[in-house]
Structure formats: C-alpha cells, structure tokens
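ENTRY TYPE: paired fold submission
RECORD: A
CONTENT: sequence, then structure tokens
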Amino acid sequence: MPTNNANLFATFEAIARDAGDATLIESGNGQTLSYAQMLSLTARYANALRRLGVESGDRVAVQVDKSLQNFCLYLATLRMGAIYLPLNTAYQLNELEYFLQDAAPRLLVCTPANYLAASEMASRNGVAHTLTLAADGSGSLNALIASEADEFATSQMQAEDVAIIIYTSGTTGRPKGAMLTHANLLSNGRALTQLWAFSERDVLLHALPLFHAHGLFIACHCALLSSSRMLFLDKFDAAQVSALLPRATVMVGVPTFYTRLLDQPSFDAASAAHMRLFISGSAPLLAETSREFLQRSGHIVLERYGMTESAIISSNPCSGERRIGSVGQAIAGVEVRIADGDDRPLGCDQVGGIQIRGSGVMKGYWRQPQKTAEEFSADGWFRTGDLGILSSDAYLTIVGRAKDLVISGGYNVYPKEVELAIDALPGVLESAVIGVPDRDFGEAVTAVVVRQCPDLTSDAVITPLKAQLANYKVPKQVHFIAELPRNAMGKVLKNVLRELYGKPGTAA
C-alpha cells in the first residue's frame, strides 16, 4: 500500500495493518508475535523513547541479545524518527566506549549483566539514559513500556533522512559510521523481495544476529515487505536448523551455516524438500562447499554480494542461472562497474576495482565528510575496495579485497585493529594479520608475529586478546617468523604471507 510518508516504517505499517493477525515472528522459545501485535509493541516502545526525550535524528545505541523485543525496538526507533545504532554483543567495554563517544547517542540499551559497567561508561560520555533488555524480553526498558499507549503516529520523514548508522572500518583509522537512509533501505528491500520472490506464503528461517546488516534488515525487510513469517532463532544451531527446515521455505545465512549443515548426518534432500531457497552472503562461499551442498540437498545456494555501505549490491537470480563462484548481477536500483586505479571503466573479463552507484548507496560516513568524499570517484561512484571481474552477461565475480579486510564467519575483521592489540603485548616486536581460507568460517583470522623474546607462545598472544577484542577478531592461529616480508617502500607483503600460511595444515 503506497504512503506519502518516506519513513520506512510507514510502508511496513501499511502492510502490517493488512496482514493483521497473521504471524510475523515465532521465536525459538515459543513466543509468537503477529503483525498487529508488532504495531502495538512498536507504538509502546516509540512512546517510551519519546518520553525519555529521544527526538527525530537522535541516536539509539543497542547492544543486546537477539529477541523479538529487540527487533521491535529497532522498528520503533524507525517509527519515531530516531536513528538506530546496532552494536555487536561481542564488543568489549573499551570498544563500546569509542562508539558512544563518536555517535553521541541519547539512549543506550544493554543487557542486564552489562548494566553497571555500561551505564557508568555511558554517563561519563554524555549518554542521557541507559536501559536494559534481556533475551527473554525482561529488563528496565520493558518495565518502562508497561504503561505506554499502544498507538503512535508514525513520524513524518524525508527519504534522505538517516534511519540506521552501522559502523564499519578500513584497514587503518577508527571505525566509521555508515549512514543508511529510509530511501536506501526501502529501495534495497523492495528489490530483494522481488528478486528473491518473497510472498505471504514464505517462512523465513532466521538464525542470524540482529546487530549485523545481514540479519537486521537484509533478511527481515523481505519478510516485512511480503507479509511473510519468520522463525526467529537465538543463534545458529545446525541440529535445530536441520530439524526446522521442513517448516521453512527460505533460509538466509553465512557460509558457516552451510558447512555446519553439511556436517549434520540428518541433512539431506528429504529434509530440504520443503525449502525453495537457500541464500548465502557476508563472506565467500567456497565452490567445493556449494557443490557438496547441491549434491546433498539438490539446492544450489544463492550467493549475493553486499556491504555495510550499500546493503545488497548484486545477487544470483532466484529463477535463472545461479553461477557457482559468482555473486550474480547488479540488483534493481544499483549499477556496478569495474575500474582501474584512476577510476577509468574497464571492459568485460578484466580485473579491477568494484565500484557502485544507485539508490542503495549510503548517504555518507557519520561526521566524516572528508572520508566520505575520498571514497567516491569524481563521477560519483563508490569505491568498494573489492577487486572483481564482470562477465559479458554482467555476472560479477569477486577475486580479492584491495583493503585486506578479513571476513570470518560473516563478520568484518580489520587487520590494523588486531595488529595494534598484538603489537602492544609483551614480547612482540611487530605483527601482521591476514585471513586464510577456512571451510567453517570462510576465512580464519591468522596472526604472523615477529618475537622479541624466543619463548613467546601462541597462547601468550591469544589469551590477552580475548579480554580486549570481540571473539571473532581473535586469531585462530599464530605463526612466528623472523621478519615480515616487505616491498621496497617498506609495506608488508600480505600476499606473500597468505601464500606461506594460507594452506590447510601449515605449521604454527
């Protein structure tokens, strides 16, 4: 149903009113939420936020476990015109503080277990309120909404108003907040809903976290825009997912999901017979995994390509050739080109930088206009930092990453952050962090370290990092080397390190 309000939630609201008592979410612990109940719950959250003094454009930072209440808090933030700021639950306090300082949220919502430390830090950094939300829906936030009305007039927004800030980074510098607008998200969601043929008959198996673009909106918006249902699991458990497949029609996931499904003896063509679509993204799916999945299930996993700054860029088709090893063609509203180092377009089958433009590309980086300008070419194309090839029929294949980003289990790991933490450890002279192919994680974070003292061990590197960094950033392996390979300009040759340590079974 069309709406004159550019607020993304206004579109969801119109669809939800038509869907009424149809189920939107069925959680792993047995809770259910209908479309009508979602409208009531988001209204109460929106009223509570407004009562706390949150206004349009204010940031609402959320670092909590996945729940249907968490999802409705996201929708309520959109509904009342504030900006949602999802934060990885694995972030340690020292990592959290940077986001609070940079984004300057008016409200922080955290888990009850983290309340004391997080609220003290938030107060010290000018955050007006800290509330709690637990995985079961309890906490001070839900106590606050108990007396709130279940009606709320959805805020009038402009298409270019920012809806979400998600932090990303390069190989150097501090994380950057990518600003995605209401128009960005609606354009991307509509294109994917059509491309992936979502309808009200679909049941989406959702085992992704809600602090990541993939789980928060790439998957969920397709369900909302098609008035379909979601099976909402707290986390991915291969046995549970395999058992639930006969109740689902679509699954979105990262390569790790598919390798772990293949490890389940119960997973076969019969268990996948009710499914119409398996989708993978956030990291490369190894060709051998895709072929094994096809042999076992009869399904070709649909690979797509996206990034925080633009959501989905390209996708293999739902109907048509799903080309193993390719991430498909540009989706509606997005253009893709391959360019050389001077931003000059290259022809078919030539390797170059992947550049994009279109309705899904972010508004810019939060409070970093100079960095935003640096990432765009003079003629308005966003440089993704990835290297790729476009075939004559416009299928895109990614061949590498110019920025040495590591994607492990679907999460971005920025080597410089990990290297700085390693270099500060006693006994370390210097380090380099790379990603090496891994069947389970897509890439495994791997550290190559030059020791100051010969008795430094892998455990002595890894153990202190676990207290400083989110677990997915901590190296799975540490290799020791006499000196790091460098070019004539002194730059570490990470391609050489990947050649040395990128093969399975390489000794530490």
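RECORD: B
CONTENT: sequence, then structure tokens
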Amino acid sequence: MRFLVFQHIDIEHPGIFREFWRAEGISWDAIELDAGEPIPALEAYDALVVMGGPMDVWQERAHPWLAPEKAAIRRFVRELNRPYLGICLGHQLLADALGGAVALGNSPEVGLGAVALTAAGFADPLFAGFANPVETFQWHGAEVTRLPEGAELLAGNEACAVQAFRVGLAYGLQYHVEITEETVPQWRQLPAYAASLDTALGPQRAASLAAETAARLPAFATAARRLNKNFLGIVAASRATRVE
C-alpha cells in the first residue's frame, strides 16, 4: 500500500499512525502544503490521509493552496473513488470539498470528551470493535454544519453534531486519533491553539491538559491501532476491486 498525506503545519502529522504504517510495510509521502510543496499525481496512491491545521477551510485568500487541495480531495474521492481519512481540518475539508458547509462552532471544543456513534456508525467497518460512546481527544473551533449530499452521519455529541461522517469510501473524523505524548506540549506552543485551549478550559485547567491526556494515552493508542486496522481493511478491499 502507498498513502498520500496532506499536512498543513509540521506539528500536525500522522502521529502514532506512522508507527503502525511502518510495522505494516506501508510507504507514504507527506506533502507540506503550507510550505508550498506541490500535490503529486493522485493515481499512484491507495489512500489519502489529510491532517489538521490552524487555518480554516474558507481562508483561501490567506492560504491559496487550500483551493487546489480541495480539488485534489474531490477528485480522489469522487473520480478515483479511493479511501480517504480526514482528521479535524481534514474532516472539514472533505465536507467543504464535496459541497457541505463548515463554520465556527459556538465555542472551541478542546480536551477529553466522548462522541456517540449513530446506528450507521456502529455498523460501519471503520468502527468495528469500538464501544459506544467513543472516548476522544478534541482540539477544534470550527465544525461541519451541513453534510455533503450522500453522506452518512457516523458520530456526534452535544458540543459538535458532526463528529464523524462517511461519503462512499471517504471518512471524516473531527477528533484526533493520532495523538502521542508530544501532541499537547507541541500544540500548546502554537498561539492559535493556545488561545482556543484557554477559551475552552480556562487557564488553570488548560495547564493540566497534558497530564490528563497522558493518563489516557494507552487507551487512545489502543483505539488508534484498531481504527488503523479497520481503515487498512477498507483500503485493501478497494485495491482488490481495482486489481480485478
């Protein structure tokens, strides 16, 4: 398998998934779009994984590479019909690229929380083996407010109605499954993320987020391993269909 990864800032990368992919012998090319790296030919890849970032989907004037990125997402999902996994901004970009809508939420959702799988989510192969609700780690201010045509809602909670959705073989997850012990300390150094953290939790609780998250990392790693295994199964089935 060969994966293409879109990154929007160097500290938001595939995280723990890199460990799993190495163990599985998967090769991947990480394209740093914010640094001006060009999008390669999409046909060479079995899956597209799009990570988070501090920008918003509507900021194309400030970040001109967002427009070609959305076009690439649309082509990969709609024309090539290959598996896609979008996390946080990658989730929102999937919705926007396919005709859905994204807007700022009422307030940032940051820290530990849970999302409830819908009936469709509980039955979906990406969530095979997951308990309901799903424990998550969140860090976002914007959210999907309207699903694209043909999308299925897979998970939500009171803070954000669209926490996961699927369109064909494309999945968007608003929450972060890729986190490691480096995630919170690194992200707190980014002014935009630090501001949303303080707004969501208040300065005192914000200071304890790293410790709170560290205690849950083993459970998050187990969940990430399971989700990765499920996604690889989806990719393998897609490849088999193309080979035939």
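NOTES ON RECORD B: Strands lie at 2-7, 27-32, 47-50, 84-87, 101-117, 134-146, 152-156, 164-167, 170-173. The longest strand covers residues 101-117.
STATUS: closed
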